[in-house]
Design a protein that fits this description.
Order of helices and strands: EHHHEE
Strand content: 5-15%
Distance between the termini: 17 Å
Shape: elongated
Radius of gyration: 13 Å
Structural class: mainly alpha
Number of helices: 3
Strand order of the largest sheet: 1-2-3
Helix content: 40-55%
Number of strands: 3
Number of domains: 1
Largest sheet: 3 strands, antiparallel
């Protein structure tokens, strides 16, 4: 799990500009390699829109975690759509 925080906490990381860095470091620690540039870009672009929508809906206490599909069985990378956030209520 790269991150499990409330929407409010994620919003604070986004405002600080530290969310993608935090996810990158956790990814490197868990997988033993750096994430691809595409993964990092997706962490910079997708979370702000979803986090803002949750906060605007009054769901800033909702916790979630990044979700990604497992790696393909082949050595080639797959650019399948990913669901970034899996929500749970505390």
């Amino acid at each position: 799990m790269l991150l499990r925080e409330s929407a409010a906490s994620v919003a604070a990381r986004i405002l600080e500009g530290s969310l993608a860095l935090h996810l990158t470091e956790n990814f490197r620690h868990q997988h033993g390699r750096m994430p691809t540039l595409a993964e990092i870009r997706s962490w910079e672009r997708s979370p702000p829109a979803l986090t803002n929508a949750l906060i605007e809906a009054g769901l800033d206490g909702v916790e979630g975690q990044p979700r990604a599909r497992p790696a393909a069985a082949s050595a080639r990378r797959s650019d399948r759509p990913r669901s970034w956030w899996a929500a749970s209520w505390p």
